[in-house]
Amino acid sequence: MSNKHAAITNDDAALDDSAFGRLARHLAQALPSSDSRKEADLICFSHLRWDFVYQRPQHLLTRCALTRRVFFVEEPIFDNGSMSLEIKETAGNLNIVVPHLPEGLRSDVATTAVLKEMIHRMIRENDIREYICWYYTPMALDFTRG
Fold this sequence. Notes:
Layout: H1 19-30, E1 41-46, H2 56-64, E2 70-73, E3 77-79, E4 84-89, E5 94-102, H3 108-125, E6 131-136, H4 140-144
Parallel strand pairs: 1-2, 1-6, 2-5, 3-5
Antiparallel strand pairs: 4-5
């Protein structure tokens, strides 16, 4: 091994201009320090109802909620009420999210647009900055793109 790559330090002057050096500098700038690191929030889009029966997704997400906020987004409920996004915080960091849409809203285009706006609003209002999406239903792909 050459002396050029023998030591890695946080000092930019000590790093060369090779691909390795550039990568090391980039990572040092991009990664937060260990004392300020926060786990990314987890948003799970599911076809299951959280309270229907306790299955593997509920088990895994309950464990995830020990170290991060979890938002479990159920498929929408179509009813006679007004359009709303119900968010119930259960134990700790676990939030159950239920979109309520008017029964007459059956167009895929309209439903996708409304759900997209609801999810964007949820992200803004809950100050979700870094997140991981877990798709447990293909339906959510349409309204989470872009």
